[in-house]
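User: Can you help me understand a structure? I only have the sequence.
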Amino acid sequence: GTGSATVGSTGTWAVSQFSTSGTIYPGSGSSTIVYTVKNTGTADQQYGTATATVNSSGGNITVGGNAVSGCLASWFTTAIANDPGLNTNIVGSASVQVTVTVSMPSDSTDNQNACQGKAPDVTLSIS
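Assistant: Let's start by predicting it. Here is the structure, written out as tokens:
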């Protein structure tokens, strides 16, 4: 006899900020953001890659979605740690944590005073 089988669809990832610590200074210090990444599907889903980006509008960082004039996003870098890794299967409804470090690697010759006291928006994308 002949039968058929059904292949499920991939779920989505839900990404939320868990915690933040540390302070960024030009040339030293960093801020660490821990994100919770949840497989919203009911079956295993393969974790691909994580990308962290300091959000910008017109080249300036955003804070709460609003551009901060004179504080360039290009002055910031991001690094991902505690990443479960490419091709890791995450069980349905399970969560993992991904850590992102944000820093300003060197003191630019530009005036960076517009960045003082700001907390740049950072997006973590999972594929």
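Now, to help you interpret it: The longest strand covers residues 30-39. The mean pLDDT is 92. Let me know which part you'd like to focus on.
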